[in-house]
Design brief:
It is built from ten helices and ten strands. It has about 260 residues and is α/β, with parallel strands linked by helices. It has two domains: about 200 residues, 2-enoyl-CoA Hydratase, Chain A, domain 1, CATH 3.90.226; about 45 residues. The chain is globular.
Length: about 260
């Protein structure tokens, strides 16, 4: 697929998705959301891809929010549909991918940008990054999962303060809150992300996908995460990756996981 607003590259086991609207600070519009969905799906279905990294082009922004001009005249019904489609098409879609997704936050991650980063499985940030959910300053609330994922990551009190003040926090405060896992220079952000990706890629992709499903189950209403873990644990014993992993351990060699 030819993309207009993103760049998708694969190098070895890593597929990197770069949101490429630098003049708009990589703001999410409908076209970009559709292309992100397609790119994540393409990377997830690629058997050679073990890890996906998503970042923004330029040095100023990961994603500086949504493109407000697209929905400023929406009705209540249209606003509800906008959020529902966004959840299904991108944010929940990313969260539930079996391929690990790392957000490399290289600048402003505001509104929908922070919501995209939070939908990823974990986040790294450059030391110039600023993160926030400014929606209430526009008379609306975060609509792409921000009111749900931010409290899960940093706690209810801190999340409500960020949402209600519409303020930004810097990368080091985000690290202190547990919103990001690592902070580094902008120059070293992608190399560090790739180093972690290579560590992930050495392990069983089947087991990683199962672990993502089990962890996510803990945050789903009406789902018993422990039961999902038990089921996924049992399923692991029927995989070729389990046979290879245990055999390699007993033979004192590195495993060569077949990925099934």
């Amino acid at each position: 697929m030819a993309y207009q607003t993103i760049i998708l590259n694969r190098s070895g086991f890593i597929s990197t998705i770069t949101i490429n609207r630098p003049k708009k600070l990589n703001a999410l519009n409908k076209e970009t959301i559709n292309e992100l969905h397609a790119a994540f799906k393409e990377a997830d279905l690629d058997p050679k891809t073990k890890v996906i990294i998503v970042t923004g082009s330029g040095e100023k922004a990961f994603v500086a929010g949504a493109d407000i001009s697209e929905f400023s005249n929406f009705s209540a019904a249209q606003g509800k549909m906008l959020a529902a489609e966004g959840h299904a098409h991108l944010f929940d879609f990313v969260e539930n991918l079996k391929t690990p997704v790392i957000a490399a936050v290289n600048g402003f991650a505001l509104g929908g940008g922070l919501e995209l980063a939070m939908a990823c499985h974990f986040r790294l940030a450059s030391d110039n990054a600023k993160l926030g959910l400014p929606e209430v300053s526009l008379g609306v609330i975060p609509g792409y999962g921000g009111t749900q994922r931010l409290p899960q990551l940093i706690g209810k009190g801190r999340a409500l303060e960020m949402i209600m003040t519409a303020g930004m926090i810097d990368a080091h405060q985000a690290l202190n809150f547990g919103l990001v896992n690592h902070v580094t220079t902008q120059e070293d952000l992608l190399p560090l992300s790739e180093t972690i990706a290579h560590k992930i890629a050495r392990n069983s992709s089947v087991a990683i996908g199962a672990a993502i499903n089990a962890v996510n189950a803990n945050y789903k209403s009406g789902v018993n995460g422990f039961e999902v873990e038990i089921q996924e644990f049992g399923n692991s014993f029927g995989t070729e990756d389990f046979k290879e992993g245990t055999t390699a351990f007993l033979e004192k060699r590195k495993p060569d996981f077949p990925g099934n």
